[in-house]
Amino acid sequence: MKLSVLKSAGLISTILLATTACAEPSANDATSKNVSQSAQSPQGTGTVSKSVDSRLRQLLTQAGIKTQITSIVPSNLPNMYQVNLAGQLPLHITEDGRYVIQGELQKNPSKRVVTKTPARSTSAQVGKPVSASIKSDMLANMAALKNMSAKTPFFYTAVPGVIWGATLEGVPFLLSDDAQYITDGEISVIENGQFIGLDEAFESLKNQSVFATLDKSQLITYTATSKERAVIYVADDVNCPYCRRLHQQIPMLNTKGVTVNVIGYPIYEASPAQMRGIWCQADESSRRKAFDKAMLAGQMTPAPASCNIDHITPNREKAAGLAVMATPAIYREDGVLYQASFESPEFLEFLGVD
């Protein structure tokens, strides 16, 4: 079993302590301090029953864990146990052995303002945004963390008490619902005694939730020109070469019954201003024509002098919940991300068209 995780320092530098004045330590000093705090923060302590210990060891061995398990203790993530491995990052596993996270937990250095135990989520809430009250309480306990705000997306996972979040730049992380412990690990699934990969059911439901929040009037839509058979969402940047190559295929996709919804997702330095010009056009037809010029001919349309509204950022921030790693990011309407070349026959198979 191999689970990829980011270096803990990378997570810390992304979401931990921010300096707020010139008299404060430098960002590098703050990061170094937090790395030290993370290394010294207590991990799960206590004991587990012999039956649980034995069952989890047997399950993990059967699933392919060959590294020595040195101990199993209660995790600081709710409803999970921490499995300490010799020479490797620990695992965190649910009692039923279905959900596993690999990663070092980092203690949130913020002052804990809200001390009550949150109401734990149910299976019906998996992939949905956390409630307003839970989010408010979590943010109150994250005052020392940078890149955390009311716009930060948080979603319920399949593990009650474990929340999925992402920075507005789309960097994902997991945390306890009291916001006391954070990790850059991901939730994997064990099924029939074997690791089957990341929790794709959660990812699909989460992405559907993100689509539901988007302002549809600020999507650029290319409607199917034959009977609609599929709908996709594409996170696009006008300066992305692969986005431009995908754009050339839109007429073909439309004739095959595929409706394409474009989410403005600028990632290149020049793109926010250029895409603002496109999205500032007077109506949907004009916006689509300006987008076509940018994608097919590299010609950018400037924003009218009268346009003082940013139509790009609101959907771009909502789309942070997709955790886009690169553009174009292509999703089916059911929230499933396409992870191969859109120029291969597999793409049409993924869409269910021929």
Identify the notable features of this structure and list them briefly:
five-stranded antiparallel beta sheet; six-stranded antiparallel beta sheet; 30% helix; 15 strands; alpha+beta; globular
Coarse structural class = alpha+beta
Query: How are the strands of the biggest sheet laid out side by side?
Result: 1-2-3-4-10-11
- Unreliable residue stretches: 1-9, 17-42
Q: Quick one: how many beta strands?
A: 15
Mean pLDDT: 89
Q: How are helices and strands ordered from N to C?
A: HHHEEEEEHEEEEEEHEEHHEHHHEH
Query: Mind telling me the C-alpha Rg?
Result: 22 Å
Strand content: 15-25%
Task: Summarize the structure in words.
This protein has 354 residues and is an alpha+beta fold. The chain contains eleven helices and 15 strands. The strands form three sheets. The chain has a six-stranded antiparallel sheet with strand order 1-2-3-4-10-11, covered by helices on one side. It has a five-stranded antiparallel sheet with strand order 5-9-8-7-6. The protein is globular, with a radius of gyration of 22 Å.
What's the arrangement of secondary structure elements?
Blueprint: H1 8-15, H2 27-40, H3 50-62, E1 69-74, E2 81-85, E3 88-93, E4 99-102, E5 106-107, H4 132-140, E6 154-156, E7 162-166, E8 172-176, E9 181-183, E10 187-191, E11 194-198, H5 200-213, E12 220-222, E13 230-236, H6 241-247, H7 250-255, E14 258-264, H8 271-279, H9 284-297, H10 313-318, E15 329-332, H11 345-351
Parallel strand pairs: 13-14
Antiparallel strand pairs: 1-2, 2-3, 3-4, 4-10, 5-9, 6-7, 7-8, 8-9, 10-11, 12-14, 13-15
Helix pairs in contact: 1-2
